[in-house]
Each structure stands twice: as structure tokens, then as C-alpha cells.
Write a structure and sequence with these properties.
- The chain has an 8-stranded parallel β-barrel, surrounded by 11 helices.
- The longest helix is centred in the first third of the chain and has 32 residues.
- Helix 5 packs across helix 8 and helix 12 packs parallel to helix 14.
- The chain is globular and about 85 Å long.
- It is mainly alpha-helical.
- 63% of the residues lie in helices and 6% in strands.
Length: 894
């Protein structure tokens, strides 16, 4: 059938829903292919998809035909096929996201309560006394930190096109079939698809830090700035509690994460903080301008107060240019006139931030703007008006201020040590930890800045000057601009004290007896060893007089970060999850003994191996001792795209996190000591099995050839290099490319290897009770189950042909397959299911639908990878594009 006829039939018939969206997008895309490359390619793509479907059903002839076609396809002709399959998968993502938004709307329209929503949370917490619920709502704190780690394959140029397609689909849903508006929507989708087809799927060059900062800001500008206030307003409405503080805030690492990234430094820190401020001011100014057209109330119809009169008189004096431009306009509409003055003052603040001379007064802080908005609200003489657009603006000011998102600065302990040793006399020569602590403590208490830094090596200067750039921004923009100074690789108290001393030298932390501190110094515990030693390290810091000075300056609140990525890469998934759980419990007890309020910062990734998975479930799985209604967590790479691309999805994601923080206060806090003992034993068994594999002397060679790690290292997804050194061996590789490589070949090994060996040795009855009653264990097995279901060893076996040593390939593959089989069997026995995802039928049906689109891409990747490794330069471009397509198909890739 003609593609356009398919479109008309799809729009005219059948209910609005996922199937119709997929049909419409597929038919329009087919029409684009016909125009751009001809019907032959479109028909061949359809044939390849049909063969992949048949092959999945066991048709050996179809499998052979599929393999023969791909082997015969010249490298120079592969790009269009890769592009077609990749776009089809990304269009499926767009349609699925629309369905998720539609599902939310159905709950609201039908008056139902969606699971994991704020409405459900308040239906649960009603069991608590009213005063406790109010206190709980007032104590809520959620900070979402966006990090642009290189695990998202979708270009920003493509995101814009996907957003346009989504908007047109939404409008099409409201239009009658056959109308001019419906036809216009279809034309808009077709135009976006065409320009998307004509856009390079893979960047020609690796993006720089500036591009990553812009990408981060894009999600605020397009979605979060308007969605976050709506979530808070819902929280107030459902709880009946009027809030003054923002229970929801944001942070960012883009532009501030120096760890292993030489392109991040003082220039990027300063530029990012300025970009954040300019974006926040511009967004606020746009919202204020919109209100000037709405708030046209007369003096005679509102509760105008003397305070408003004085405020307008002050504006006349301080904003002379604006007063001259306004003249006598809106004299009888005081709220409108006041909002115009707010708009002018924000414009002056933008000019000042951009380095231009402002034409009149500026806002000294976001608090001053908040006061102006509150003044206007107090005069509207209507609760409905006060709780409308003005309430949204007020929450935008409170949530985003003039800083948009707090910038965290991160550096590795090795670089921090080197910088401190180059500046503080005797530190480099001090071999004992006790002596290092003594020297740093004395320098902090005495206010000793050490030597002049001009003779420091460039790496050390980058650290000190980045902190100085942060201090200048804090001076200019206020303390809200800056978040934490994160010390990755922290192994001993002197690592944290060295970071504190460098922060103090820059004016960010207290020297001597100063009470001023603008930054939290946050140790990141990410390796297996550091997680085990975390509580002891913090014990030592809590009794250190210099560190206690910092704590006093931060109101005795200490943030620590636990990393899910490197720990799983280090000791395997199960052991890492358990050690992180234990570390949180021990850190909470350590803080309680010291009279300190602990905040745990969760460094989660997208894949199960990096702590990914449903946020609601993960929050409820926290240990009871470390589960206040406070949470800071990272959202990385493709997770940012999945959760915050669309307003409805973003609202849902933020609701799920806040609702879990509420519900967590009602759960049982008791954990059976036998469960804890069993988990300790299982973690050690799993760790041993995992380490036995990765420590095999032949494993690095097997990994290098059976995964496309060489391809991953070339992908220009992010500005960060894939390894902290030039080596791509597993021990030097970052966790993201390690996981990404195993996801590309569909094995997903980091998310499950070692779990089967451990569960096979578990007490079956005890393990079943743990799964039924312990949220931590249930969440752990749920993540493993998803990974096992997504893993496709039949596809993974295709990559074995890339391993030059056949004996090595066979030996290693047998270990992988045996452990996979063991893990599936043990998990099913523990959960009482007969097959994976038996309890989640919708997910079980939906996930395999992608396979016939991903399978040809996997086969193309294997073939092109072999050619590329053999020296075929024409294979490189389509090979890189296969990674984009496979990532789109599997989604949680890093």
C-alpha cells in the first residue's frame, strides 16, 4: 500500500493510542524514504524487518537470508540502512513516550489514582497524625543533578526534531481526521522527519564542554522551568500545607566535572555559572513579560496597599529610563505597571551579568525579586488569581533563583593531593597519614595559605584556579550558584582535608575561626574498598577540629556521595549494591554519633549495573537508618533524555521521586538480622565469581574483541574521554564505556554476572522471605530480572566471531552462558515465577517488539566492526551510527 494511504487509514480508523501513533509515524517515515532515497531502500528495510521477525520465531531460512544480505552489503551503502533502522527505533520511543503521557492523562480524566503519584502517596500517609504529615511535607528536599556523562547517543539537533514531532502528534490527537489542521500536523511531522533524515546521526566531532552545558540548559528551558513549579503546587494542594522553602531544586555537573577531563577548568566553571544565571534571568523575564499582558486590574478593583505605592515610587527613581519609556501608561493599572518595572529590572540584571552597563537598578538577589512577586500577589484581591500564574512565577523564583541549577565541582583525590602537596610545606614528604592530617589541620586552623601557586604544575593550577573562579562567581552571583566540591576517589581523611584546605585558600570554606562557608566538601565513595572504609574515614573527620569548623559553618550538615558505577565495575553488581547499602547504614550511625545530619548523594547511572532502574523503588530500598525525606541524586546521559524530554514525563518522574520520599516515612524500618547475614555471604560469593572472570589473564583480550569497545572509544557522544588513562583495558576504563560496550553486544554482563552463582548457594526459604518483605532485596532482583530479560545471548554470540582466538572465545563464552543460565534459574526459584517478567506482562510484551528492529543493526555492527578492524575505512561511519541505533533500541545503555 502507498505510504500516504497508510497514514490516512491510520488517522481515520482505530482508537487514538500507541498503535495508531506507531502506524502514522512509520507510514510518514516510509513516505520520506521514498522521496529521499527511493522505494527500493524502503522496501528492503521492510523485508529485513520481516526476516528479523521470522528469524526470532525460529525460521532458519529467514535467519540465513538476513545474514547473507548483510554480508553482501557494501560498506559504502550501509549508512542508509543503519539510519532507517535507527530512526524507526527512535520513532518507537517517541510513540511510547506519548503513550506514557496519555496514560497519565487517563488517570486524571477518570479520577483515578496513578501508582507512585503524589495522590497515591498522600492516600498512604493519611495513617500518620496530621501534624507529622505537615512536618514531613515541610522537610521534603529533592535535588536532581543533571550530568552530561557520555552515555546518551541522541544529538541535540535531533532532540529538537523529536520534540516537534511529539507536539504535532499531540495536536493531531485533538484534530478530526481529514481536516485541514490534521493534514497540517501530518505535514509538520513529515517535514521534521525529512530534515532529521538529512541530519548526521553521529556528530562529526566530539562535543565540547560548552555544548554539554547548552544541552543541560536546554532541558531547563524547554521543560523543567515550567514543570517543576506545577509539581510543587500539586504538593501544596494535596497536602494542604503552604510551603515557603523549595522542596525541589536542581544541580548540574556539566562544566564543573574536572575528574579525568582536562577541558574542564576555571574557564568552563566561570562560563557555566554565567550561562546558568543568564538562562535563569531570561526565563524569569519571559514569564514576567507574559504576565504584563494579563494583570490589567484597575486601582479600584484590587486590594492595593501603601507598600505597592511606595514600591512604584522607588521604581520610578531607580529605573528612570524605564519610567520615561512607560510614561503615563498603566497609571490606572498598578500591577501591570509594577510588573513592567520588574521586567526592566531583570533586563538590567541580565546586562550586568553579560558584562554590559545596566541602564538603571538591578536585582541584588533572587530574594528581592521574590519580594516583588509576593507584593503583587498580596494586592490581587482573589485567592484564585494569587494561586494562578503568580504562584507559578513565585515557585520558579524559589526553585531556580538566578542560578538555575547549583554547579557541583568535582575533582579526583589524586589531583587534589598533588595540588596540596605543591603548595603546603612538608606535605609531599609526609609519608604517614597521621602526619598529613596534622599538617593540613594546622594549616586550616592557622589560616595558612601555603606557598605561591604560580610554580604549580598545570594540573594543580587547574584545581586551584577553578576553585577561585567559583569563588568569584559566588561573590558576584550569590552562594546559591555553587553546589558541592566533590572529591572522587577519596580513600583517606587527608584527601578530604586537602580539598577543604584548597577550598579555604580560594575563599570558599572557613580558614581559622571564620564562620563563612560557601561549599560542601563531599567525599565520593565509589570503589569497593572505599565503600567498606567510608564510615571509618568520616569518623576520623568528625573528630578533626578543622573539619568540625567546616561543619559548624554548614549547620552541622555533611553530604557524602556513594557511587554505583565504579563499585559495580570493581566488585560486580550484587556485591556493589550490598556494600553501598551497608555503607549508607554505617555512615548514618557515624553521623549520629557525631551529632551530624547526614545527606547521602546517590551517583546513579542509567543501566542496572550503574544503579539505574525505577527511582521510586530505589528510594524505598534505601536502608532505614539512612532514609530521611531528603534526597540528592544524579540523572545521567540518556536518563535525562528519557525522563525530562517531555513535560508530562518530567512531571511524572519528579512526582515519583517525591512520592517515594513521602511513602518511605510509613514503611517498616525493621530488617531481620538473618537477612543481613545472608546478604553479606551472597555478596562475597558473587564478588568472588565476578572477580574470577575479570581477573582471568585472558579476559582483557576477550573483552577487547567481543565488545565494540574500540568503537565506543571513538564515539563523539560526550566531551569526556572514555578512560582516565590512554588504556582501554577494563581496569582503566570508566564505568560508562564499560557498561556501554556490554550493552552494544546485547550481553549486559555487568548487570548480572556473579548473581547466579550467589543465589544458587542461598537458603531458598530465606531468600524467598527476603524477596517478599525486604524492599532492598526486591529492588535488587527486579533490576537483575530486567537485565536478564533484555540480555540476548543469541545476538551476543554473533560477536564471538570477532575474537581471533577461537579457543579463548569458546572458553569465555561458556562461562558467560553458564552464569546467565544459573542466574535465570536461581532468580525464578527465588521469586516463584515460571519465566522472567511473569509479574509484569505489559513490559514483557512491549520490550521484545523492538528486537526485530535492533537485530539487523546488531548484525550490521558485527559485520562492519570486522571490516573496520580489517582496515575498511568506509565501514567507520555506518559503524558509528549502529551504536546510536542500538542505544535507541535498548535505551538504558550507560
Amino acid at each position: 500500500m502507498n505510504p500516504l494511504a497508510c497514514v490516512e487509514e491510520s488517522v481515520a480508523s482505530g482508537p487514538v493510542g500507541l498503535e495508531r501513533d506507531v502506524a502514522v509515524l512509520s507510514a510518514l517515515f516510509a513516505d520520506v524514504l521514498d522521496e529521499q532515497v527511493g522505494t527500493r531502500l524502503r522496501e528492503t528495510v521492510s523485508w529485513l524487518h520481516a526476516q528479523a521477525v521470522a528469524a526470532r520465531g525460529g525460521d532458519e531460512r529467514a535467519r540465513a537470508q538476513l545474514a547473507h544480505f548483510i554480508r553482501s552489503l557494501p560498506s559504502a551503502q550501509a549508512s542508509d540502512y543503519v539510519r532507517a533502522f535507527s530512526m524507526q527505533l527512535q520513532l518507537a520511543n517517541v510513540a511510547e513516550e506519548r503513550e506514557r503521557a496519555r496514560r497519565r492523562h487517563r488517570y486524571e480524566a477518570e479520577g483515578g489514582i496513578q501508582p507512585e503519584s503524589l495522590a497515591e502517596a498522600f492516600s498512604i500517609v493519611r495513617v500518620l497524625p496530621r501534624e507529622r504529615v505537615e512536618a514531613l511535607v515541610r522537610s521534603l528536599e529533592l535535588r536532581v543533578v543533571l550530568t552530561m556523562h557520555p552515555s546518551d547517543a541522541t544529538r541535540r539537533a535531533v532532540l529538537y526534531k523529536q520534540r516537534d514531532i511529539t507536539s504535532a502528534l499531540e495536536e493531531l490527537e485533538e484534530s478530526d481526521a481529514g481536516t485541514s489542521r490534521a493534514r497540517a500536523c501530518l505535514d509538520e511531522i513529515r517535514e521534521s522527519l525529512t530534515t532529521w533524515w538529512q541530519t548526521d546521526e553521529v556528530r562529526r566531532a566530539r562535543p565540547d564542554v560548552t555544548e554539554e552545558v547548552r544541552r543541560t540548559i536546554y532541558f531547563f528551558e524547554s521543560v523543567l522551568f515550567d514543570v517543576a513549579p506545577e509539581v510543587v503546587i500539586d504538593l501544596e494542594r494535596l497536602s494542604g500545607v503552604r510551603l515557603r522553602h523549595a522542596p525541589l531544586t536542581f544541580g548540574s555537573w556539566a562544566g564543573g566535572d574536572m575528574d579525568g577531563h582536562d577541558a574542564v577548568g576555571p574557564e568552563s566553571v566561570a562560563a557555566t555559572l554565567r550561562a546558568h544565571r543568564l538562562a535563569a534571568l531570561s526565563l524569569l523575564r519571559d514569564r514576567v513579560r507574559a504576565l504584563t499582558r494579563r494583570y490589567t486590574q484597575s486601582w479600584r478593583r484590587i486590594a492595593a496597599r501603601e507598600e505597592l505605592v511606595r514600591s512604584l515610587e522607588r521604581d520610578e527613581r531607580e529605573l528612570e529610563h524605564a519610567a520615561r519609556e512607560l510614561g503615563e501608561r498603566f497609571r490606572d493599572e498598578p500591577l501591570r505597571r509594577k510588573l513592567y518595572f520588574v521586567w526592566y529590572r531583570l533586563g538590567n540584571t541580565i546586562d550586568e551579568t553579560a558584562g554590559s552597563k545596566p541602564d538603571g537598578a538591578v536585582y541584588a538577589s533572587a530574594r528581592a525579586l521574590e519580594a516583588d512577586v509576593e507584593l503583587v500577589r498580596s494586592c490581587v484581591a482573589s485567592r484564585r488569581v494569587a494561586d494562578g500564574a503568580l504562584a507559578r512565577l513565585l515557585w520558579q523564583v524559589r526553585i531556580f533563583g538566578f542560578h538555575l541549577a547549583r554547579l557541583d565541582v568535582r575533582e579526583h583525590a589524586l589531583r587534589i593531593r598533588a595540588a596540596a602537596e605543591g603548595l603546603l610545606d612538608g606535605l609531599r614528604e609526609a609519608g604517614e597519614e597521621q602526619e598529613r592530617v596534622r599538617l593540613l589541620t594546622r594549616a586550616l586552623l592557622a589560616g595558612d595559605p601555603g606557598r605561591d601557586e604560580r610554580r604549580l604544575p598545570s594540573a594543580g593550577l587547574r584545581v586551584t584556579r577553578s576553585l577561585e573562579a567559583a569563588r568569584r562567581a559566588v561573590t558576584a552571583y550569590g552562594p546559591d550558584a555553587l553546589g558541592a566540591f566533590v572529591v572522587s576517589g577519596a580513600e583517606r581523611p587527608s584527601d578530604v582535608l586537602a580539598a577543604l584546605w584548597l577550598a579555604a585558600r580560594a575563599g570558599l570554606a572557613p580558614f581559622g575561626y571564620s564562620a563563612r562557608s560557601y561549599v560542601d566538601v563531599v567525599p565520593l565513595f565509589e570503589s569497593g574498598t572505599s565503600l567498606r572504609a567510608a564510615a571509618g574515614l568520616m569518623d576520623a573527620l568528625y573528630v578533626n577540629p578543622a573539619f568540625r569548623r567546616q561543619l559548624a559553618a554548614r549547620e552541622d550538615v555533611q553530604e557524602v556521595m556513594v557511587g554505583y558505577s565504579d563499585s559495580a565495575k570493581d566488585v560486580g553488581f550484587l556485591a556493589a549494591q550490598w556494600w553501598i547499602y551497608q555503607a549508607q547504614e554505617e555512615l548514618a550511625r557515624s553521623a549520629e554519633r557525631a551529632g551530624v545530619e547526614l545527606r547521602v548523594f546517590h551517583g546513579r547511572g542509567g543501566s542496572p549495573a550503574r544503579g539505574g532502574g525505577p527511582t521510586h523503588q530505589a528510594i524505598l530500598a534505601r536502608p532505614p537508618a539512612a532514609s530521611p525525606p531528603v534526597l540528592k541524586l544524579t540523572e545521567q546521559g540518556e536518563v535525562v533524555r528519557v525522563k525530562y524530554f517531555h513535560a508530562d514525563l518530567a512531571r511524572r518522574a519528579l512526582e515519583q521521586a517525591l512520592s517515594a520520599l513521602l511513602v518511605g516515612e510509613t514503611r517498616e524500618t525493621w530488617v531481620d538480622a538473618r537477612w543481613m547475614g545472608e546478604m553479606e555471604r551472597l555478596a562475597e560469593v558473587s564478588r568472588s565469581a565476578y572477580r574470577a572472570l575479570v581477573e582471568d589473564p585472558d579476559f582483557p583480550r576477550f573483552f577487547a574483541e567481543v565488545t565494540p569497545i574500540d568503537l565506543v572509544s571513538e564515539l563523539p557522544f560526550g566531551s569526556r574521554p572514555p578512560a582516565r588513562t590512554r588504556s582501554l583495558s577494563p581496569e582503566h576504563l570508566r564505568a560508562i564505556p564499560w557498561v556501554f560496550a556490554w550493552t552494544q553486544n546485547r550481553v549486559l554482563l555487568p548487570s548480572w554476572y556473579g548473581v547466579g552463582t550467589a543465589l544458587a548457594q542461598a537458603d531458598p526459604e530465606l531468600a524467598r522471605r527476603m524477596w517478599e518483605r525486604w524492599p532492598f532485596f526486591r529492588a535488587l532482583l527486579a533490576a537483575v530480572e530486567i537485565a536478564l530479560f533484555k540480555a540476548d545471548l543469541a545476538t551476543g554470540e554473533l560477536y564471538l566471531g570477532l575474537v581471533s582466538d577461537r579457543e579463548l572465545a569458546a572458553r569465555m563464552w561458556e562461562r558467560v552462558c553458564s552464569e546467565h543460565r544459573r542466574t535465570v534459574e536461581a532468580l525464578l526459584e527465588t521469586t516463584g515465577q515460571s519465566e522472567l517478567l511473569e509479574a509484569k506482562p505489559a513490559l514483557k510484551v512491549r520490550l521484545p517488539l523492538r528486537n526485530p528492529w535492533v537485530d539487523p543493526l546488531s548484525r550490521l555492527q558485527v559485520e562492519l566492526l570486522a571490516r573496520h578492524r580489517a582496515g575498511d575505512d568506509e565501514a567507520r561511519e555506518p559503524l558509528l551510527a549502529t551504536a546510536v541505533g542500538i542505544a535507541a533500541g535498548l535505551r538504558n545503555t550507560g
